[in-house]
Design brief:
Glutaredoxin
């Protein structure tokens, strides 16, 4: 073999080795950046939820929210007042023996949005694969803090979407489109647009809009918020697995939460 052939072979080998090193460095960087982003999100969830806890009032202001009504209409599938999970929204394919994850959220809550960004898909995957019974527990307590009624109307709109079979889709669409500025809330036009984004169209969208305009489920939203105040929940997001509080750093981490659920399933 000629010297030139050997040189070409050596250069090719060196280039391949350098490329491999570069690829490995990029992979490490991606993992590092990904981990850093998750860490920032988790820290944000913890920090904002503490703010929510500290600013929480145990007495809702009737001027910015609806009053609880024991006779209020309930969306389809929602648990009745007599249930241990009163006014909660179930989502699961799990057996009744699977661990129960209750998740209190407020549609205006930045920490809830951060949680949904970090691990909303992971939580829903646990539910859709039968690992947990997921029960969303809506609350509108931030209306009290932000002096608006956006959480109330968003929750009521969710009830209208539940009736149209778009429970998960509407929930996810709201959290994917938070107000640009905290406190701006959601207009009814925005809530109707969320319905369209969720796949509600045609006659179903007309029914949704009538339901929203009639404030059909504001009583349900108020009842669920009253249950929140009575529950001892410490701000939002706030989760319980089989009645035991789940730390927010675990809730926001797919692997940690899956491990906790697996442990609860064995007990």
């Amino acid at each position: 073999m000629s010297n030139s052939s050997n040189e070409r072979r050596d250069r090719a080998a060196a280039a391949k080795s350098a490329a491999n090193v570069g690829n490995k460095r990029r992979e490490r960087l991606i993992r590092f950046v990904g981990a850093a982003v998750v860490l920032v999100i988790v820290v944000g969830i913890i920090a904002v939820s503490v703010i929510a806890k500290n600013s929480d009032s145990t007495t809702p202001d009737p001027s910015v929210t609806a009053s609880a009504d024991p006779n209020a209409a309930l969306p389809t599938t929602v648990y009745p007042a007599s249930s241990d999970y009163a006014f909660g929204v179930p989502f699961s394919t799990a057996k009744s023996t699977a661990p129960v994850l209750q998740l209190w959220e407020d549609f205006q809550c930045p920490a809830c949005e951060a949680l949904e960004t970090a691990n909303g898909a992971g939580i829903q995957e646990l539910a859709s694969t039968g690992k947990i019974q997921l029960i969303w527990r809506p609350t509108t307590f931030l209306d009290n803090n932000l002096r608006n009624d956006a959480s109330l109307r968003a929750t009521a709109a969710w009830g209208c979407a539940i009736d149209q079979g778009k429970t998960v889709e509407y929930h996810n669409t709201v959290y994917a489109n938070p107000p640009v500025t905290e406190g701006d809330g959601f207009t009814n036009a925005t809530l109707i647009d969320f319905a369209s984004q969720s796949g509600i169209e045609g006659a179903a969208l007309e029914t949704f809009t009538k339901c929203l305009d009639a404030q059909t489920y504001t009583g349900w939203a108020a009842n669920s918020t009253a249950a929140f105040y009575q529950s001892g929940a410490q701000g939002t997001p706030y989760a319980l697995l089989n009645g035991t509080v789940v730390p927010n750093d675990v809730l926001a981490d797919k692997d940690k939460l899956a491990a906790l659920v697996a442990s609860a399933s064995k007990s």
